[in-house]
Design a protein that fits this description.
Layout lengths: L3 H12 L5 H52 L3 E5 L19 E5 L14 E6 L7 E4 L6 E4 L12 E6 L8 E5 L5 E3 L21
Antiparallel strand pairs: 1-2, 1-5, 2-3, 4-6, 6-7, 7-8
């Protein structure tokens, strides 16, 4: 008797079997566990990338301001925006995250004001919600560079610190030296928190 038809039919039935309910439940459970474990790491990745982009924006402004000061032979200041239609470095606020300006002392009168004939070189918009950017020491509201690119003679030496919801442990900073050179902060003592220019742990508002 020829059983090939029977065997072929049984093979087809066996190969067409789907997942059982138990297999589906196990798969869903495994996916849920993976999602729980990967969630915080994925969030940190997003926040770290955002921090890097925001710090790069400020670093670019500081480096450009220093270069422009040398090129023009005049003081250039990066300051918190005052939000006016004709922006100036007259803001008394300390929230760098609101945005900043770059102004050159074109008329060399020692007063940086676009209304007074100085040149507005850059306007940086707010860096986004959920993040703070604050300065210590002499960079609370502005950072100035003289015609040689130094910041020491104008008192603008200090650290700008960037914080998000994770707090001081994940804070990052930009340290501006007397020479005008800006660098990223680092955790030199390996305690899990980066330090400012005075080797003090970064703090968040």
């Amino acid at each position: 008797m020829d059983n090939r038809g029977c065997c072929y039919s049984n093979a087809m039935e066996t190969s067409s079997r789907g997942f059982t309910l138990i297999e589906l439940l196990v798969t869903v459970a495994l996916l849920a566990i993976v999602a729980v474990l990967a969630g915080p790491a994925f969030r940190d990745l997003i926040l770290n990338n955002r921090q890097a982009a925001q710090l790069n924006e400020m670093m670019a402004s500081l480096n450009l301001a220093r270069a422009e000061a040398v090129k023009r032979g005049a003081s250039v200041r990066v300051c918190i925006t005052d939000g006016a239609t004709t922006p100036d470095c007259s803001s008394t606020r300390t929230e760098w995250e609101l945005g900043w300006l770059m102004v050159a002392d074109s008329n060399r009168d020692g007063t940086l004001s676009t209304a007074g004939g100085d040149t507005l070189l850059q306007v940086q918009e707010a860096i986004g919600s959920g993040t703070t950017l604050r300065g210590n020491n002499n960079v609370t509201r502005s950072v100035s560079f003289n015609s040689r690119g130094f910041s020491g003679s104008t008192g603008s030496t200090g650290t700008l610190r960037l914080c998000d919801a994770r707090g001081a442990g994940e804070a990052r900073g930009i340290v501006i030296a007397n020479t005008g050179r800006a660098r990223r902060s680092a955790d030199s003592n390996d305690n899990g928190t980066e330090e400012d220019g005075s080797n003090v742990d970064l703090a968040c508002p």
